[in-house]
């Protein structure tokens, strides 16, 4: 892939997600989300990215299964474009947060985006590790339900049946597509360290370590918010019923 193609695809992606964000702002926004319209638009845009790249990453391996056997050298134009599009989204989202939110409130996500842009950037520019980057994007399958959870909470639907169902699916896909994927990527990196230049190996290892820590913290927050809190609320209700 030529550098011009990478720049064009990435730049088009930035523009596309800017248009998505603008379009979301033109749609009806729940009254409870009116207090933070920027966050509603940002999460909705992230949901679109997750839906697009989550499905796209699966299609990459279905259309070009040889890539699963060689995550370093083998890739297709389709998979290379996916990684470039994702870079465009993360660049867009980085500046969207910098412009509209205090750094102190979003430094974790900003740091995450810098790590992802760096790792994916090396992949698309060198045309190596594209398959590895596509594996990383399988995480976005869980992000679909993670972002949907935030949308439902902002719409004050956290007590609905749909929210509870989404919470269960979110938890299941979190383990399968986020925790398991990161564990598998770490194992693959260690087993193939002799095939990877030291600088790429170091950047990949540090990036995966950071992602793992962030995802463990997020998993604990999800458990505490959606499951432990619900259990405590049920216990409180039972105690009140006994008192009556």
TrEMBL record:
The chain crosses the membrane at residues 46-68, 74-95, 168-186, 198-222. Keywords: Membrane, Transmembrane, Transmembrane helix. One of its GO terms (biological process) is membrane assembly. Pfam families: TRAM_LAG1_CLN8. It is found in: Membrane. One of its GO terms (cellular component) is plasma membrane. Residues 35-228 form the TLC domain. It is a multi-pass membrane protein. Its main location: membrane. PANTHER family: CT120 PROTEIN (PTHR13439), TLC DOMAIN-CONTAINING PROTEIN 2 (PTHR13439:SF2). This is TLC domain containing 2. It comes from Cyprinus carpio. The gene is LOC109103778.
